[in-house]
Amino acid sequence: MSALASVVPRYYGTCVLHGDLGLKRRHIKLEDLTRKYENPSIVDIKVGYRTWYPDADEKYKTKCRAKDAATTSSTLGFKICGMQVYNAVKQRHWRADRNWCKQVNGESIHVALAAFGNNGLAATPEGIYLGKDGVLNQLRKLKDIFKIQKDFLFHSTSILILYEGAATTVEDLRVTLKLVDFAHTFHADCTLDTNFLTGLSGLEQVIESMFFG
């Protein structure tokens, strides 16, 4: 539990908000991961070969299976759901729309991930993904947690990767990797979350192949 707590946004309790038709709903309050960045570059990567959970109804499963089959979820074990990159030279963000994300395939995934790791100045793919504080090391630490934890199964959960898009030095990048979108999480009954674990391995292998062949 303590290991997982280190890789999710901080929890600040709950609050009650008015929803549709004036209904009151209780919501959890989580840390804003972007707050420490001036112009964050962010990528949302949904992890797992299967995004549906076993107790879902057949309509939901069918919908998820179709989405998984049409994206890199079914072949690589993960897919890009959203991305924005800050260009420090042009001083503006570029945001990937839904169609752009859907079109990323096994051949273009390296190009997409490399584009995320480039702000035109200090940020380079090598600086973002490699090194002691890079994505690859943080991903491996997360994978080590999932090699051991048998408390929870994560379905349709993402990892969010952020760095300072306006960085002019490597020291200012502050690369962060966190688990997000974990609403569909269930007790694991002392079993490994192989779906999520193999998805992490797929992402690790793709990043490694970008630099080491």
Please describe what this structure looks like.
- The chain has 213 residues and is α+β, with helices and mostly antiparallel strands.
- It has one domain (33-212): D-amino Acid Aminotransferase, Chain A, domain 1, CATH 3.30.470.
- The chain contains eight helices and nine strands.
- The chain has helices at residues 2-5, 58-69, 73-76, 98-103, 109-116, 125-129, 135-146, 194-212, and strands spanning 11-18, 24-30, 40-47, 78-87, 92-95, 152-154, 158-164, 176-180, 185-187.
- The strands form three sheets. Strands 5-4-3-7-8 form a five-stranded antiparallel beta sheet. The protein has a two-stranded antiparallel sheet with strand order 1-2. Strands 6-9 form a two-stranded antiparallel ribbon.
- A hairpin with a 4-residue loop joins β4 and β5 (92-95).
- It starts with a helix and ends with a helix.
